């Protein structure tokens, strides 16, 4: 993908992020925002008046900047705002935002406009115009690319100075918005700081996806992309109540890295010895041992992480271990119908494998607060059972206690 394509896509994503942030900021449920209708983004009152207009500029360059003093986009924005004032699209009360993902220099014209009175601003603009005219006069070929660009900017500056009344209103109402981390700002505005990082990510992604998908659908249907605060609040409510958000307490297994040396260090653990008691072929046994070691290690890591973040307590995990033991007992005693001595060693080994695979693969359980498990965080449930088998308080083989004791003696 070319740099220009990356820049364009990043710019659109930045605009959607800003739109989501402004939706969070609306105070009344009847207020709304629009995207690419009046401006990059606009906020509207219930009566239809425009509360604010926003121009968004994004740069992917590490040292990049936006809204430069002699940038065409800056003066074109000022021209459009002047014309909107003249045609009554906006009023002298409409806020005007220049938003960017970069820090705007304190020495920039835009920052000077925000901080100083109009007479001083007008003088600075005139000085800028004169310096650009001098620069243009120094070109031998004024019709070249650089000459044409400067000529266009001079025309826009002249337009602004010629419409002093509207320019003064713009200078009074304009604000800069430098958003280096909009996602963090949105999460703060949503008041979801108490949720886990995984839940916050899912909430943000859900809302961002809803906004972008709805925009594209509306544009494809030749409709304006508009969202009320009420629509946003209803979507947020649905989002917070969805099972995918509720269940996103634990990190996905791919986010917890395990090294080969970590796996090797656990091969003598009791829970591994327990799997070795099962009557299965060596290749399958190796597969189950590796997966179990990974689940066991991830459980230990996540157990510590979750408690340290304060989302769940040590007692919550202890309670879950007790529930796991109860489930193991229920399945074990419903599976073993005869006395142990009535089974052959081969039958006991096969029963143990059935018990193990049911508990690890098929058993459905929930943590506290109805937190469920999916394929990405199943290691928490499995790791809990493996921890119990490592103490050991439970076993897979029906005769696990005797066999482990015999191994210990030998």
From TrEMBL:
Residues 271-403 form the ABC-three component systems C-terminal domain. Pfam families: CTD7. It comes from the Bacteria. InterPro entries: ABC-3C_CTD7. This is ABC-three component systems C-terminal domain-containing protein. The lineage of its organism: Bacteria, Pseudomonadati, Bacteroidota, Flavobacteriia, Flavobacteriales.
